[in-house]
Design brief:
There is one protein chain. By secondary structure, the chain is mainly α. It has two domains: about 130 residues, AhpD-like, CATH 1.20.1290.10; about 60 residues, no CATH class.
Length: about 220
């Protein structure tokens, strides 16, 4: 895995003061200055008490609670502020998590890579266990958590690492890597992979923005 595209993730930093943003292809720079601080101490959008829900929220909450998730948990507590968005989002997620064409071992690797990319604590702690159960080696999980490249990877795992790294870095996939991914996943699985990265990125961003609290008793990962 020397020279893997994933190596660009090994030195991620979280800026405390954003000074510039240069959108690709726009040919201009927007300068943003602020003195805000990043804090995880206060959940911005906690669960809505049932008595305070709108009718649309009650319907959406009942629907997700009747499914495999069993309740309005994690990012869906915040997303319930837009109940129709949450309904559609959770339907996509139910397919990608439980029924997609991706092998569970590779699917959980995708989720952990996404959680690492966004340093999303809730997403990590709720998928580290399933990743281990699905057969992701402990050394690989530890490497993903700390943003390093595992010492050894199976060929299909290496393809997932490289493909996700490219998606996190602009999304323009070279022909050779595309061919590798199709060989590992097939065309249906490749679409599911790209969709999973997009879906779990959406959840990670929702939770980072709204400061979703960890499950009770959970400990935040050490990102290294």
């Amino acid at each position: 895995m020397a020279g893997s595209a994933f190596t660009h993730l090994t030195h991620l930093t979280y800026p405390t003061h954003l000074t510039s943003f240069s959108p690709r292809g726009l040919g201009r720079v927007m300068v943003i200055g602020h003195t805000d601080t990043v804090s995880q101490s206060t959940e911005r959008m906690p669960a809505i008490p049932a008595a305070q829900m709108t009718e649309a929220q009650r319907v959406a909450a009942a629907e997700i609670s009747a499914g495999r998730r069993g309740g309005v948990v994690g990012p869906f507590a915040a997303a319930l502020r837009s109940p129709e968005c949450m309904r559609r989002l959770q339907h996509l997620g139910a397919y990608l998590r439980y029924d997609s064409a991706i092998d569970p071992r590779l699917r959980e690797m995708v989720i952990l890579l996404t959680a690492r990319h966004f340093r999303q604590d809730f997403e990590w702690v709720t998928h580290e266990g399933p990743a281990r159960a699905a057969g992701v080696p402990p050394a690989t999980i530890d490497a993903v958590r700390t943003g390093t490249v595992p010492a050894s990877l199976a060929a299909d795992e290496a393809t997932i690492f490289d493909f996700c790294a490219v998606l996190f870095d602009g999304g323009r996939v070279p022909d050779a890597l595309y061919a590798r991914a199709v060989d590992v996943l097939g065309e249906p699985g490749l679409i599911d992979l790209v969709s999973a990265v997009g879906y779990y990125s959406t959840l990670a961003l929702i939770m980072n923005v709204t400061r979703t609290a960890l499950p009770e008793g959970a400990v935040a990962p050490d990102w290294g």
